[in-house]
Specification:
Length: 182
């Protein structure tokens, strides 16, 4: 039996869901290796060849010379181009989607990750730092300032950005984070 092109390395986390959502929504075959953080599998030398930052998600595209990709936003972008879906072709529409993917990657994701670390890991372990805990965490964006269609506001209305006509890699990038607050 032929193997699917995409082999995914992931775990059940907010970033880990992103390529899974893409692959399921696109209906393309893939297989996956679950990465067990408790065993530090994300830092194993073989995995670092695929994901140099030692984090999930990552993919290997067997259909493209075993091309490796890490960083969830870059993976979504790569998959969108490979399968020609969930990323508009028109330059302005495409840029608009990618602006929000970048916003998620550079803002929402890291800020929520850091907030969660200080609130849920450091504090219960005796490292309670109010300065870090009170550092501004991502706030809902007023709908009128969000998407032209009111499609997406950060955490206050998950189902709006999921509406099918607007379902692109932008939605896949924010889905895992949108329903949670640090
Ligand atoms: N910017 C990266 C973040 C990836 C990331 O933080 N992954 C976490 C899980 S959500 C991870 O692998 N953590 C394990 C570790 O840091 O050792 C992306 O979007 O792919």
């Amino acid at each position: 039996m032929t193997q699917p092109d995409i082999h995914l390395f992931t775990a059940a986390t907010m970033n880990g869901y992103k390529p899974v959502i893409f692959l399921e929504e696109a209906g393309v075959p893939y297989d996956l290796t679950p990465i067990d953080f408790s065993k530090q599998e994300q830092k194993a030398p073989a995995f670092l060849q695929i994901s140099p930052n030692g984090r999930i998600p990552a993919i290997v595209d067997r259909g493209n010379g075993d091309f490796p990709a890490f960083e969830s936003g870059a993976i979504l972008w790569y998959l969108a181009e490979k399968y020609a879906c969930f990323l508009p072709i028109d330059a302005k529409a495409r840029s608009e989607v990618l602006q929000w993917v970048m916003f998620q990657m550079g803002g929402v994701g890291p800020m929520m990750g850091q907030a969660m670390y200080f609130q849920r890991i450091a504090a219960p372990n005796g490292e309670e730092h109010p300065f870090a805990i009170n550092f501004p965490s991502p706030k809902p964006i007023p709908a009128q300032n969000a998407m032209p269609f009111g499609e997406w506001s950060l955490v206050d209305n998950v189902h709006l950005f999921m509406r099918r006509p607007f379902w692109t890699v932008r939605g896949f990038a924010v889905f895992g984070h949108a329903g949670r607050s640090p």
